[in-house]
Amino acid sequence: MERPPNLAEAIDAAAEALLGVLDGAASRHTVPVSPTQLRVLSLVSSRSDVNVNRLAELLDVVPSSASRLCDRLEATGLLRRVADPRDRREVRLVPTAAADALLRELTERRHRAVQAVLDRMPPRVQHELLLALLAFAQAATTTTGAESDPPARTA
């Protein structure tokens, strides 16, 4: 099958629509943290051995900025700094139970919002979309290489 010349544009438009749906799900309820803080929580939750320096690398900011973000999250009870059991000089970032609950709730809201859109599509088209997304993810993984960190996801 020949690729339509505007496929990249169509994907870009679909990605924008998806981001709108996801953002709308988050904004319908008050999220007690900024989008950047939410990203920090998501990064820390998905990696068990993150310290402030590694977080700064993932966010592409200086360590002092990452540390200030962590200070604010710690003050709200969503993040803790704990000594690394392997090296007590190292401090690891750990999400609290409240952070886990916040991320879980946000993920559930986003899934419901996406499902509401999918429910307006015919089942056959949903299945085709699933196959296309799986193929796209596979191609993207092959292109970026499996040895690199997975892309940072927000909640």
What attributes does this structure have?
Arc Repressor Mutant, subunit A, elongated, mainly alpha, 6 helices, 155 residues
Task: Estimate the mean pLDDT confidence.
Answer: 87
- The level 1 CATH classification is Mainly Alpha
CATH superfamily name? Answer: Winged helix-like DNA-binding domain superfamily/Winged helix DNA-binding domain
Helices and strands, in order, run as HHHHEEHH
* Main beta-sheet strand count, sense and barrel state: 2 strands, antiparallel
Q: Specify the CATH architecture.
A: Orthogonal Bundle
Strand order of the largest sheet: 1-2
Q: What proportion strand?
A: 5-15%
What oligomeric state is this? single chain
What is the CATH T-level topology? Arc Repressor Mutant, subunit A
How many H/I helical runs? 6
Query: What gap, in angstroms, lies between the N and C termini?
Result: 36 Å
Number of strands: 2
Shape: elongated
Tally of distinct domains: 1
Textual characterization of the structure:
The protein is mostly helical. The chain has one domain (9-143): Winged helix-like DNA-binding domain superfamily/Winged helix DNA-binding domain (Arc Repressor Mutant, subunit A, Orthogonal Bundle), CATH 1.10.10.10. It is 63% helix and 6% strand. It is built from 6 helices and 2 strands. It has a two-stranded antiparallel sheet with strand order 1-2. Strand 1 (79-83) and strand 2 form a beta hairpin. The mean pLDDT is 87.
Give the topology, please.
Blueprint: H1 7-27, H2 35-46, H3 52-59, H4 63-75, E1 79-83, E2 91-95, H5 97-118, H6 123-144
Antiparallel strand pairs: 1-2
Helix pairs in contact: 1-5, 2-4, 3-4
